[in-house]
Structure formats: C-alpha cells, structure tokens
Automatic annotation (TrEMBL):
Protein name as it appears in the record: ParA family protein
Matches recorded under CDD domains: ParAB_family
AAA domain boundaries: 1-166
Source species: Chryseobacterium pyrolae
Pfam families from the UniProt entry: AAA_31 (PF13614)
Database matches in InterPro entries: AAA_dom (IPR025669), DNA_Partitioning_ATPase (IPR050678), P-loop_NTPase (IPR027417)
Gene3D superfamilies: P-loop containing nucleotide triphosphate hydrolases
Amino acid sequence: MKTISIFTQKGGVTKTTSTINISGVLAELGYKVLVIDFDTQCHLSLGYDVDKETEYNVEEFLNSVEPIRYAERGKHQNVSVISGKLKLSTKSLKRDSLKKPLKKIEKDFDFCLIDCPPKPINDDLGFGEIAIFASDYIISPVDYDAFTLDGLTTLIITLDELQQREKLTAQYLGFFFAKVEENTKDFKEAYRELSESEISSLLFKSYVRKNAFIRTSINTGESAVFLKPFSPVSMDYRKLTDELLMKIKIDAK
C-alpha cells in the first residue's frame, strides 16, 4: 500500500476536494483505495456523507479498536473511508501513532490517501506531522496568490529539515494548482514563474480548472468522476492522477 498525505499549511485550496477526486480516479482505475479523514473539521467525512458520530472513526483506528469498519463509497463501493473525529486530540498521540495501525492493513489496499488539516508544522506535534510520518508520499494543492506561494516555500523547507533532522522518509512529490482560471494573467504568470524556478521539478504539469460542478459533487457525497465522468473537472483529475502515478513509478525505480 502506498500512503499519500494531501497536505498544505493553508486552508481553502481544495485539499479535501482533491482527496475525494483523486481517490475516485484511483478506484476507477481498479485500485483498492482507503481514505482517512485526519482533519478535526471533518470536511472529508462531510464530503463523503459519512456520519462521523455513528461510523467507525479515526480515533478508534488510532487506538487499534477491532474490527476495523469502513464506510464504503464510490461507484461500485470501491473506496473505503475512515471518518474523522471532531474532538480528536493529539495529547496522547505520538509521531508514529498513525503509522502503526496502517501497517496492519497495508496488504488490504493499494493506496491510502490522508486528508490532513491546513495547519503549519511547528514545535507542537500536530495531525499533519503525524500523517506525513505515516506516509510514503506528500502532495499539495495550491492557489496562485502570493500568500499561498510563499507558504509553499516554507513547506518545502520544513519538509527538507524534517528529512534531515528527524529522518522523515516521505517523498515530497510536489504541488499542483487547483481552482484555476487558466486564461487569467495571475495564473499564467504564476505557472510560468514556477516552471522556470529552482523548484520547477516539483510543479505538476496538470492542474484543476475552476468548475461549478465540483460543488455539486461534494454536496452529493461523491467524486466528480463517478457522477459526471466527462465533465472538465473529472478530466482534470484524471490527468492529475495519471501524473501522480507516473511520479510514484519514477520514484520507485
């Protein structure tokens, strides 16, 4: 099982939406997919229409409560979801608290996607840090405003420091633009500048265009690729997921 954290240090950049739709594409390709809501806002659980109060949740998973029960979603019920917990606390957790239970089920799935909270990694142990230390890879959806791009630089530096100092093994595969208005000057300039920058290798060539249907899909509790397979947003997420799989394949060589 390849575990991927969808992580940013800023909210509102389609982190949860991307988790739902990338998992949908992977399932469409025939992979067995697990999705974990590791954000106490529980937006992923809401997006998948999973009752976080009655379903088996991430707190029980962290505490190794057996048997593990998944909420089944997807066109053929082929996406397994572990819901979030609103009052989940890091007080009793350690850096490897998620890694250990994931190890027990690593043969049951091909991919695990973790929807992380939009909070910076700092001196206090947070859910984002716990998630990335349980992961093989990290990717980030980003906006193309100056604030977000500045935060991206900080994130890359932080991950590099964790790799050097704390032996973080997760590979940062890069970042992709979401909610894109591709004909605007701001997007074209941001894309060009990053394409020519020192971190150009981390920029996904694929991006996800802004589309009203994405809100409909989230409100319905399903990924766009299942609800409307040939919508622009579905096609964008397919291209993005194909590029993600290629990056993983290259890294594995």
